[in-house]
Amino acid sequence: VSNALAAFLTLKELHLPINSEYVESFKPFSKILAMKPIKTLSHNVTLIDDTHNASLPAMINAIHAFNSQTQFFTGNKIIALGKINDLGHKSAEVHAELVDVLTHSNADYILCLDNDLRPVVNKIRNKHITWYPNKDLLMNDLMHLCNEDSLALLKSSSGGTEFPEIAKALPQRLTHFELADNFGDIFEEMSHLGQSYMIIDNKTNDIISSHNVEQSQTIEGMGPLLYYLKAMDDKLDNETITMQEWVTNNDKHYTGKQTDLFTLLESMTLSPHPSET
């Protein structure tokens, strides 16, 4: 309503006609606080996707709407938030208004993305609340928290944040997701997913043994860092290095390509190609 009045007042101030047909055909966004049931491979989840836009009143209203529905669900109650965009220097002040609302919400878990929400997370007590540095980590935890008969509110601005990408991808991801029957505490379970390995016979390429290969959450990219540190510790001289034959080789990184150690180490500090690693 506020947006509509602002538009009308702007037209009036500019001495432009207000066509009644514009209003007659008006329809609100279809996904405003719409409850969407999702059937996963193992259970049922309900999402409230309200990521089309966000202001402070709209975000508070969405949280209150979420609170009014939690009594009808037996699973986890989850609030996942991205930032309110276009607040400029007022961002910290406006987001701080969410502290009390989230503290007194009915959420069992609160997941937050974007730097603007990080101070909010630090001020909330007696809640399972986490700030995430990227959308992939938040998405992973959110999927595991959406257990049987759970309710999850997704709320953010439509721009200036990657959060709407979560809301867009989550339903499809959930339909192919299966939650283990014995899944327990989220933080304990995630630490278990960090344990993963595969031992392969170099001659036959047969897998000798493996653990948690499908759902591995191990930290990627540690190899280059370890090689880099070892090279510094050993005080290696700059020498010519010839690229070996690897399955990841391509036109740029090919068998027989020559480089030098220092160039390779410099590449290690960026985003090295698997063949370089």
Helices and strands in order:
Layout: H1 2-13, H2 20-24, E1 34-39, E2 44-50, H3 56-69, E3 77-81, H4 91-96, H5 98-103, E4 109-113, H6 118-123, E5 128-132, H7 135-145, E6 150-155, H8 163-175, H9 186-193, E7 197-200, E8 207-211, H10 222-233, E9 240-242, E10 258-260, H11 261-268
Parallel strand pairs: 2-6, 3-4, 3-6, 4-5
Antiparallel strand pairs: 1-2, 7-8, 9-10
Helix pairs in contact: 7-8
Task: Please explain how this structure is put together.
The protein has 277 residues and is an alpha/beta fold. The protein contains eleven helices and ten strands. The strands form three sheets. Strands 1-2-6-3-4-5 form a six-stranded mixed β-sheet, sandwiched between helices. The protein has a two-stranded antiparallel sheet with strand order 7-8. The chain has a two-stranded antiparallel sheet with strand order 9-10. The chain starts with a helix and ends in a 9-residue tail after the last helix.
